[in-house]
Structures are given as structure tokens and as C-alpha cells.
Design goal:
Blueprint: H1 16-28, H2 37-65, E1 113-114, E2 117-118, E3 151-155, H3 182-189, H4 193-204, H5 207-215, E4 220-226, H6 242-256, E5 260-267, H7 292-310, E6 319-323, H8 335-351, E7 358-362, E8 381-386, H9 400-419, E9 428-432, H10 492-509, E10 514-517, H11 530-536
Parallel strand pairs: 3-4, 3-10, 4-5, 5-6, 6-7, 7-8, 8-9
Antiparallel strand pairs: 1-2
Domain Glycoside hydrolase family: 202-439
Function: Glucosidase involved in the degradation of cellulosic biomass. Active on lichenan.
Keywords: Cell membrane, Cell wall biogenesis/degradation, Glycoprotein, Glycosidase, Hydrolase, Membrane, Signal-anchor, Transmembrane, Transmembrane helix
């Protein structure tokens, strides 16, 4: 029996009931002869002392054992761990005495691993009987066809893979210091990178996050994480392995609330897109440049270890989607090279035993129609597309009414075409979208770059700069002040727009395999926060109960400024 699960006290101590029976028997016996009373008092005193000692030891042992039963309320803290139980040379990521947060982690030291990835922090038992809500099956029941029951999920983005616009407080430095991504942040922080990032990991997403996600009627969670959770390489400043245990704990919290998981490898060696959320903004070194092939192989090596780990029985019911590479920039990279790498990664993951999860690959911004006839013959493979109007200079200029119409008509048409293997790839899900109608959020377009909305996007590359306003009025009135206002300042008309815009997207994306909102929460960009949208009343109280579905009339929003 697993330590800490026995109903009896360790070390042979009797139960409380047995002590009571012994005392009853003592009082029920006839009184002893007088000449024995003195001896009885001596023996009795010794007996009482022994009983007290047994009870004290039992209480201490019982409290210690409760830390092994998976109960969050009784999880031990690092201060309860004897220092001599941890080897002096244990690395920080295996040593709970050095962890910022020990909540719900198994603190029994172990070097055991699966796929050369540590199991430290995990309990040996799990329970898949929970379900996110009454409209979906429990984890230990089959989900069924995603085309008939689409996923309704959310990303916990900005947590294990940093993104400046989600947590700008981590990037509030003078621009001259060049701190623009996780690479430059950890380079600057040096030895402090560990404490700063672990404090973020421990507080930005907690158990309450997943409880609230389930309460919102959502049923899936996409968890972005980076390759340095698994491995780092020469020259990497990233925090090695710490995020790994937070990923595993996050999955266990999803399990507790019946939420299925979409694993998303968000940052690959070399950077697959050159954007800040890949770890390092700038040149693409994945399948490109001097180390392009090396980094492609390193990425396969990362998946080799990940897939061996997540092939364990404990993950068969909860890992619904397994993502290979977030947003590879195929408008720059060789499409054939990325496709070949994707096929190799797929075969590797399947060979290692991930048999039930749908494997996910990114559309690479090629356009959904261009995936027709590609990667055929690979079972249980799905195409992932991310849909936004604000990163397209021709779409950000749409007025409020047109944005909703485009979500209803344009994205519905794209989703339907992509789902049909005669006109598209087939299984398609939208793993990122939001209610944002401007690109005004601080650091959204990279630290210090400005934005399209006001015509201040200065990338340092003249061919990519946008220096004329692209709000619908396309004039000097375009401003970000009101666009970046707190949700409490939103007008009722703007709230109506946001609600319709969100539900139009939900309706369109449910024509495919479903959707994942980007993201659950932000520090100060409410149009990107599902949590804040719920609180403001611009998202359905339950994700499965929409009040707008594109069949109703769309207002003109004539009272709503198009320039803010």
C-alpha cells in the first residue's frame, strides 16, 4: 500500500478505538487488593506515559503521511521536509527545499524519470472520473467526434511561455536595455531569472484558475510551454526544467476539474517564427540558417522525450491534443521542409506510444485552402489555425459591424471549406482567437514597436513598417486611449459589440473541431482576457449557452466611435 494511505498508524501503534476499549476494561474490573495498589499506581503511571507517547508519535506520523495522499488541503510544505532526506547535490528542479511553491506537489524525493523526464512532484494515483460540466463526458469516457461535439477551451498563455503583452510588468525596463523577450529578460536577470520566473509560475496560474475555467462552461485547456522545460543548449539563458513541474501540476489540476488538455510546444530550439513568444525575437533559426537542421533535430529530440513521458497510462484520458510546433512561419520557411518535419514528428510521437491524443500541426499562415491534399494518410491529425482581424492591415480597418459580419461569414466559410477534404485538409480547430478589435494593447506588437491602429508600427524594417493610421477612419483621430480602457469604462454599446463579436467567432469555429480563446487572463489587456470578459458580461456566462449565433440582425453601432 502506498505510504500515507493506510488507515492505521505506522510503527504498529494501535487505533484510538483500541485505547478506549482498554480503558473501559480497566474501569470495569473489580478493584485490586490493597497491597497491590501501590504497585498498580506505579504501573499505571508508566502505562499512561506510554499511551501519551504513542498518541504523540501517532499524530506526528499521521500528519507527515497525509502529504502523500494527494489531498491539496494537507499537502506538506518544504519546511516539513528533513534536509537530510534530500541529497546535497540534488539540482534545484528536484529539490523541494528550493522551490518557491510546493502546493499539491509530492515532496518525496525521487530521481525516477520517464523518457528521461522527471516524475518528481507527481503522486502515483490519479482519478479520471471528473467532467467539466454536464454537457460533456467525464475524462474516463470517450469524447466522441469533435465535429459533432466541438471543443470549447481557453489558453493559459503567458504562463510557462512568456509573452510581453500578457504580463507587461515583467518587461517594464528602459527600451535602451533591449529586454524584449524571455531570452533577453533572463540574460539581463542572470542568477535572478529563476526566482523571478518561478514566482510568476506560482502566482499567475493557480488551482483557482482551472476551477474558474470549468465554472465558465469550458471543457478544454491549451497549455503553451517551451522547450527549456525539457532541455537547454549551450548559450541558452533560459530557466531550465522549472516550468516542467508546473506543467505537470497544471495537468493534474485540469484532471481534478474534468478539463481535457491541449499540449502546446510554443517555443522550439532556434525559434520557429522569430516572435517574442518563441523565446527569442529576431532571426528564425529553425529549419533555416547555419543551425537550422540541427535545431530541427533538437526539436525532434524534445518530442522524443515528451511523447515517451505522455504515453503513460495516466495521460491517456486527459491529453486530448498534442501540439508539434506553434505557429511555424511558413511564409518565410520552406513549406516542404516544415511539412516533412511535421510528418517525421508525427511518426515519432505515435511510435513512442501517444496513440489516443489528436496530434496538432499549425497552418503556418499559408491559408487553409493550401493544405488540401497534404499530410494525408496520417490518422488522428488536426490542422490548427489562429484567427485574428487585427494583425491584417486589410481587416483591422473593418468597422464594428463589418468585423462581426466577417466573423459570421468569412470565418464560417473558411472553417467549412477546411473541414472538407475536397477543399481543405479536414479536421480543423481554432486554437487561438480573441475579442480584440485593435492592436493597441501594450507590447502586443513587440516591446517598443507601436501599433497599426494609430500608424506607429516601426519594426526597424522599412518594408514592414505601418506609419499611417489603420483604424476604420484612417486619420489622425485614431487613438488607443479608450481602446486600452479598463473594462469598467466600456459603454453598453461597446459591450454589445464585444459580446456579438465573441459569439460570432464561437459560432463559426464550432463548424470545425472547436476553439481555444487566447488567453484566460492578462494584466491589463481586457479584450484578450476570458476571465475579465466574463466579469464584464461580454462573454456567455456558460460557454455552451450563447445568446447570439449569427442568425440575428447585426446593429450598425452608429453611436460607437470607429477611432476611439
Amino acid at each position: 500500500m502506498e505510504e500515507g494511505r493506510s488507515k492505521h498508524l505506522r510503527g504498529g501503534a494501535g487505533s484510538y478505538d483500541s485505547l478506549v476499549r482498554e480503558k473501559d476494561e480497566l474501569y470495569d474490573d473489580p478493584p485490586p487488593p490493597a497491597y497491590k495498589k501501590k504497585r498498580l499506581w506505579i504501573y499505571g503511571g508508566i502505562g499512561v506515559a506510554v499511551i501519551i507517547l504513542i498518541i504523540v508519535i501517532a499524530v506526528v506520523v499521521s500528519k507527515k503521511n497525509k502529504g502523500d495522499d494527494g489531498d491539496a488541503a494537507s499537502s506538506p510544505s518544504a519546511t516539513s521536509i528533513p534536509e537530510d532526506s534530500i541529497p546535497a547535490d540534488a539540482p534545484a528542479w528536484l529539490n523541494p527545499l528550493q522551490w518557491t511553491d510546493t502546493t499539491d506537489f509530492n515532496l518525496t524525493y525521487t530521481t525516477d524519470s520517464v523518457g528521461d523526464l522527471p516524475v518528481m512532484g507527481l503522486y502515483t494515483k490519479w482519478d479520471d472520473s471528473a467532467k467539466a460540466n454536464d454537457h460533456v463526458p467525464a475524462l474516463d469516457e470517450k469524447w466522441g467526434d469533435y465535429a459533432s461535439r466541438p471543443a470549447r477551451g481557453v489558453n493559459v498563455g503567458g504562463w510557462l511561455s512568456l509573452e510581453p503583452f500578457i504580463t507587461p510588468s515583467l518587461f517594464n525596463y528602459d527600451l535602451s536595455q533591449g529586454i524584449i523577450d524571455e531570452y533577453s529578460l533572463c540574460t539581463y536577470l542572470g542568477s535572478r531569472c529563476g526566482s523571478v520566473l518561478e514566482q510568476h509560475y506560482a502566482t499567475f496560474v493557480t488551482e483557482q484558475t482551472f476551477k474558474d475555467i470549468a465554472a465558465a462552461g469550458l471543457d478544454h485547456v491549451r497549455i503553451p510551454f517551451s522547450y527549456w522545460a525539457v532541455q537547454t543548449y549551450d548559450g541558452d539563458p533560459y530557466l531550465f526544467r522549472t516550468s516542467w513541474r508546473y506543467l505537470l501540476r497544471g495537468i493534474e489540476w485540469c484532471r481534478k476539474y474534468g478539463l481535457r488538455v491541449n499540449l502546446d510546444l510554443h517555443a522550439l530550439p532556434g525559434s520557429q517564427n522569430g516572435w517574442n513568444h518563441s523565446g527569442r525575437q529576431g532571426p528564425i533559426g529553425w529549419l533555416n540558417g547555419t543551425d537550422g537542421d540541427l535545431n530541427a533535430q533538437r526539436s525532434l529530440d524534445v518530442h522524443d522525450r515528451l511523447s515517451k513521458f505522455f504515453a503513460q497510462d495516466r495521460y491517456k484520458n486527459i491529453i486530448a491534443f498534442y501540439g508539434l510546433a506553434n505557429e511555424p512561419k511558413m511564409t518565410f520557411l520552406s513549406a516542404s521542409a516544415v511539412t516533412a518535419w511535421t510528418e517525421n514528428a508525427y511518426k515519432l510521437v505515435r511510435k513512442n506510444g501517444v496513440s489516443d491524443a489528436v496530434i496538432v500541426f499549425g497552418d503556418g499562415f499559408m491559408g487553409l485552402g493550401n493544405w488540401q491534399g497534404k499530410l494525408t494518410g496520417l490518422k488522428n491529425l488536426a490542422l490548427d489555425v489562429h484567427q485574428y482581424v487585427i494583425f491584417n492591415t486589410n481587416q483591422i480597418v473593418y468597422n464594428h459591424t463589418t468585423k462581426i459580419k466577417y466573423a459570421c461569414d468569412g470565418w464560417t466559410q473558411q472553417t467549412t471549406q477546411s473541414m472538407n477534404t475536397a477543399t481543405g485538409f479536414g479536421p480543423t480547430l481554432v486554437a487561438e482567437w480573441s475579442q480584440a478589435d485593435t492592436d493597441c494593447a501594450k507590447y502586443l506588437t513587440n516591446v517598443g514597436w507601436g501599433n497599426r491602429w494609430t500608424g506607429t508600427l516601426n519594426t526597424g524594417n522599412a518594408s514592414e513598417n505601418i506609419l499611417t493610421p489603420r483604424c476604420p477612419t484612417m486619420d489622425s483621430r485614431c487613438a488607443c486611449g479608450e481602446a486600452n480602457a479598463e473594462a469598467g469604462r466600456w459603454s453598453s454599446s461597446y459591450k454589445t459589440f464585444l459580446s456579438m463579436f465573441a459569439q460570432a467567432q464561437m459560432t463559426s469555429f464550432e463548424k470545425g473541431w472547436g476553439w481555444f480563446y487566447w488567453v484566460w487572463d492578462t494584466e491589463n489587456a481586457p479584450q484578450w482576457s476570458y476571465k475579465q470578459g466574463l466579469a464584464a458580461g461580454v462573454l456567455p456566462a456558460k460557454a455552451y449557452e450563447k445568446t447570439f449565433d449569427c442568425t440575428q440582425d447585426i446593429p450598425s453601432f452608429s453611436d460607437l466611435p470607429e477611432y476611439y
